[in-house]
Amino acid sequence: GKCSGVGVGGVAIRAAAAAPGDLHLGVVVAALRKHPFSSSSASSSSSSSASVPGASPNNEPWVPQRSHRKIFTSASGAAAAARKVANPGHDLERPFFNVAQQFGIASRRSESTPRQRQLAQLEPLKPGLGSFRFPSAASSSSSSGEEAASESLRALAAAHRDPALAHELGARFAKQALSKFNSPLHKHGTLDPLISEFSIGSPEGVALLQLAEALIRLPPEARGMPATLVRDKLARGDLDFFSHFAGDKSVLVNGASLAVGAVQRILRGDVLPPLSAAVSGSGVLEMGIRRGLGIMGKKFILGNTVESAAARAIRNEASRPLTSHSFDMLGEGARTAEDADRYLRSYLHAARHLGGPDTAAIREPQMSVKLSSLCPRFDELSRATALPVLTQALGELVQAGGSGPGAGANGVTIFVDGEEQSRLELTLAVLEATVRVHKPAAIGIAVQAYGRRAMHALEFLEELARAHPGTNIKVRLVKGAYWDGEIKEAQVQGADAYPVWTDKRATDVSYLACAAFLLNSSWLRGPAFATHNTRTVADILAMTGGLPDFVEAGCEFQRLHGMGESFDYAGAPLRVYAPTGTTNDLLAYLVRRLLENGANSSFLKQLADGREHLLNLDVLAAPASSSSDLGAGVMTAEQACAILDASSGTPGTPGTSSSSGLSGARHMSTSLAPAMSTVPPPLRSTNISPGLPSHPRAIYSSRLGARGVDFESPDFPALFAGTRAYAPAAGASASSTVEQVLERLALNSDKFGGGLGALGGVAARAGVLRGAADLIEAEALPMAKLVMEEAGKTVVDAINEVRELVDFFRFYAAQAEDTLVERRLKTVTGEENVIVPMPRGNWLCVGPFNFPLAIVGGLASAAFVAGNPVVVKPHPATPRCAAALVDVLRCAGMPEDAMTVVLDEATAGGVNNAVAPGSGSSAGAQLVGSGAFAGVSFVGSTQTAAAINYSLAVASMEKGAPLARLVAETGGLNVLVADASALPEQVCDAVIASFAGAAGQRCSSARVLVLDRGCKTSVMRLLAGGLAELRVGDPLDVATDVGPLISAAAAGKAREHCARLEADGATLACSSARGAGADTGGLDELDTVASVEALVARRAEMGAYASAALFHPRVYELPGGAAGLELLAGEVFAPVLHVVEYDGSPENLAEVLAAVNKKGFALTGGVLTRCESVKALVKERLNCGNLYMNRDIVGAVVESQPFGGHGLSGNGTKAGGEGYLLQFVSHKVVSEDTTASGGNMDLLRTT
Description:
Layout lengths: L9 H9 L5 H11 L39 H13 L8 H6 L13 H7 L19 H4 L1 H15 L3 H19 L2 H6 L2 H6 L5 H13 L9 H10 L16 H18 L4 H10 L1 H17 L5 H14 L3 E7 L7 H18 L11 E4 L13 H18 L12 E4 L7 H15 L3 E7 L5 H14 L4 E7 L4 H10 L11 H17 L7 E3 L3 H11 L2 H6 L3 E5 L13 E7 L2 H16 L4 H6 L17 H4 L7 H10 L69 H6 L8 H4 L4 H10 L14 H17 L1 H12 L3 H25 L3 E3 L5 E9 L3 E4 L7 H12 L4 E4 L5 H13 L7 E3 L20 H8 L5 E5 L2 H18 L5 E5 L5 E4 L5 H12 L12 E5 L3 H13 L19 H16 L3 E5 L20 H11 L11 E4 L18 E7 L3 H12 L3 E2 L1 E5 L3 H10 L4 E4 L16 E2 L17 E9 L7 H5 L2
C-alpha cells in the first residue's frame, strides 16, 4: 500500500478485531481519536527522547522513524478480496468515505460497478459536484452550515493524524524556520524582510504596491504617465516612510525607508522646492522603481523564457538532489482569440522544450497552464464551445510534452491550474474529456482546499482515475488564491452560500482533510502538497507516520519559487513551483504573491513579525464542545473505548481492508449514519471572518438582497429550456381602455382619499411588496423568460432585471415603514406639532421597454406603497410584462382596483413589433392630458419627458387640474474616461460591458469613450478582439451575449446614425460582425430597413435566428478630439460607442469633459485610472448623476447605488435611494396648543 493515513497500533488493531461486522470502522476511528497511535512498537514515547522525531536534545538532524505506522496484514487484504468475490456488483475499495460517514460527511458519488467504469472509458463521466453558491436542500455539506461542516472535516482529519507527533514536528520546524529567517544572511541578503515590512498592513506598503502594479504595465507611448503616478502615490501626506527605519531591521528595509522617504519629501516640496518638479519629471524615480521591480521579479520568477528557466532549474536540481520543478507559464485570461492562440503557441513551445533532449536532466518536469488563457469564453454558459476547444488544446499540449498514450516517465506532465469556483465543474469536465479522448500517460490538476467542494472534486478525480487506469492523474493540493474575489462574486451573484470557507482556520482544516483523502487513495498516486506553513508539513507527515512512508508513496511537498526558503521541508521531496514569463505577464502573479505575503494570517508574515506562538497552532485541536458537536449518529471515543475494554484481544477477520490501514464496509449501520438535514444554510455562523456578512445576501440591515440563479450549473441550459415563461392570470392580463380608467378614477377619488389608511395602510402595503418579492424570487426563471421573449434580453440580463425588481420591492417596503409615518416635530414647550404624510392621489406610471419589469415595477411599487391608486402604461412592445407585474402584486394581496394597466390599441408586443421608440403613444397622451393625475412617473427619452411636462401644464391651465408632479428619468450621453495607467484588459472588459451589454439599451449605457493616446493602440486592439468574441443573435439561446434591439425600426435608426457618422468623417474602428454585412454576417440586406422581409426569408433558409432587429455592437473614432463631439446631436439607444482621443494631459482631459458637459446630459460617467489626480479631475469636472471608478458604468444596485440624473437626464430624486418615496406623498402639519385644556401639564409634571 501507500501512505497509511493513520498510524494503527495495538489499540486500533484490537478494536478492528473485536468489532462485529460493519461496526468496526467507527470503532477504529473513535478509538484513534481518544488514544491515537498507542502502538506496541512505540508504547512509551517518554522512554527515549530519540524515539519521537523532533525531540533530540542536541538539535541533531531528525532521523525519521517507522514505528508510528503499521499496515494491515496481507490476511486482511485476502479477506477484502474474498468479500469482493462475494459481492461482485459493488466496489469496496473506498474506505475513506466509509469512515467519513461517521463524522457526518457523506459521499456525493454513487457506487460504481466494473461495468460502469468500463463504460466511463467511452462515455463522459460527469463531475456532478453541485453548486456551493446555490446549494440544493439535500446537500449535506451546505445544509449543516459552515461551522458544523468544518467541525466534521476537523474530526475526520484529526482521526488520521498522530497529534503528539504533529506537535513535536511542528515545534521543531517552526523553530528551524524562525532561526533561519532571522539569521544575518537571510535578514540582510534576501527580499523577505523588505516584502514583509512594506506589506498591505501599512499604508506605505499599499502605496508602493499600487505604484508597482501601475508602472509595470504602462505602454511605451504613455510618456508623461510615470511621473504622474510617482507623484500621486508617493507625495501623499498620510505616508511616513521614515517610520519604517529601525536599527534592528534589515539593511534593505532601512535603505529603502530612507531613500523613499527622501524622495517623498522632495516630491512634496518640503526641501528644495525647485527640485521637486525636476526629479518627478526626469524619469530617475521611474527607472529606480522599475529596477526594483526587476529585482523582485527575479525573486518570484524563474526565467523570462522557458529556456532560461529550464537552465536555471537544471542548476538548482544538480545542487539539490531532492528538488524538482513545475513550470508555471504565466498568462492571464484571454480576452480575444488572438490572445488564446498566442498563449497556446507559447505553451506548446514550452512543452516541447521541457520534454526534449536539452532538458533531460530535469527530474519529472511538470508544466502548469490556465484554461482561461486558452479560451476567451471559459464559462458554463459557453460550455458547448469551450469544452471541445479546451479538450483539443490540452490534447495538443500532452502530445507536445511527450505524455501521450503509452509514453514513458520522461514526459512533461501537464497540470491544469485551479481558477474561480464558478469554473470548477467545467474544468473537471475538460480534464475528463482530455483523459477519455487523448488518453495521456499522465496529467495533473490543482485542487483548491478553500473551496467548499474540494473533497467532492477529489472524489470525482479518484473515480476518473479508476475508470482510466492507463492515465496517472496527479493532484496538487493548494489552499487557493482567489478568496477575496470569490467572496465578492458570491455577494454580487446573490448566492445562498459562499463557495469558499470564510474563515482561515476552516480552510486549513479543509486542506488537511483533503490531504487525508489523498493519502488514503490508491488511485490518485503521488499527490503533491503545496504549502509554506511548517505546521501543515508536520500535520501531513504525522498522517503518514514518518518521512520514509511519505517518500515511499511518491508524495512530495511544493513551494513557490522565491517563497518558503527559510524551511527545508524536513528533507522531504520538494517541487518548486516556478513561474516563467515576461514582465508584462508578471503583474497579476506578482501582486497576488505580495498580497499573500503581506496578509496578516500569512505564515511568512507571522515569521517576519516574530509571532512564534502562532507558528505551531493545531487547527485540528478539538473545540471544548466537540463531544456533542457531531450529533447523535457519530460514535464518540468513549463508546469506542468501551468496546475495546470488553474485547478479548483475539485477532478476528476484518470484513474489508484497504492499503491505508483503515478497515471499512460499503454499507454502514443505520445507527451510525447521521440524518441528512434539509434545512437551508443558516444566516449566522461563528466561523465567519470579521467584517464579512454571514450570508452573501445579508448586506443590508433591513432586508436580504435578491437571490440569483445558478448559471454555473451544467444543468442550467436544460433547466432553462424546460421552463415556460410566466403567464399572468386572465384578469391581470386584461387591460382597460383610457375611458374606463378615467371613469373608475373619478368614482374612486373619495375612496382613495388622503391619510395613512389609504389602500390598507403603510404596513399592509409594505407587506404586499414583500410578499410579491418572495413570489417573484420563487418564479425568477419563468419571469426572466417572459422578459427575454418580449423584450429580447439575454438570460443574464433578464435574471438581473428580475433581481432588481425584487430589490425595489423590498427596499421600498422598508423605506415606507421608516419614512411614511407620522412624526413629531421639535417645538416650544406647551405645543405639539406632527407631520403626516398623505398620498398625493391618482398616479400614472409610463414605463420603458428596456426594463419592462424592474423600472416599471419600481415606479409602480413606489407610487402604490405611498398609498396612491396607480395606472401603468407600459411600452407597446412589453404588455405581458406589465400584466405579470400586476398579477404578482394581486397574488400578494394588493386590492384589484389599486393598480390598472392601460395599453395602446395597436400594441403588438415582442422584439419584432413595428413600433419605434419615441414614436408616441395614443393612450399615454390621452392619460397625461386628462388632468386626472396628481403625478406622473416616466422613464424614457428627454423629448417625451418634455412633452409630458408641457401636457401636464396645459391640463392645469386649461382644465383647472391640480399642478401635477413629474418624476422623470431620461437618457444621457454617458462618458467613460480611460487613461494610460489603467490596465488595458480591465478597460476592455469595462467598456464592452458598458456599451454593448443589454444591446446598448440601458439608460446608463456608455456612448462616449474618452481615451488616452498613450494606451489607445493596446485598448483598441483588445476592443476589436473582444467584440469579435461576442455572440449576437437569438436571446433565447443561453450562450448569446447580445440580443436584438427592441424593434426593426430601432435598428434602422441606429444604422442611419452610423451612416451619418461615416459621412461626417468618423471611422469605423471595429465591430462584432464577422462578415461584410455589419449585421448579417455577409447579408447586406439589413443596410436598409426596406428589405426586412427578404432578410427574414434568407435567415429562415439558413436556419439562423430571424430578427430584423439585430444590430452588431460597433466602435467609431471621432475626428478632432473634443471637436468630434459636435457629431453627436443626442443619445442613440443602441450599442454604438464613440471614441474621443486626448493627449494624456490633465488640461486636454478637462477640455474634453467641458465639451461633454455642454451637451446638457448628466446621467452616468466613469473613469478607469490608477492616478488619484485623474480621479479627482473627473469627479470634479464631469457633470453626472452617477460616477463609477475603475469598473463598468451600468448595473446600478438598489440602495447601494441610487440611480438618476439631472439636466437633460431627469429631474427626480434618485431611484432606489433614501427619500425617493417622498415624491409620491404630500404632507400635512398638525399643530396643537396643549395648554388650552388646563395648562402645560408636561412642564408642570417635571417641576
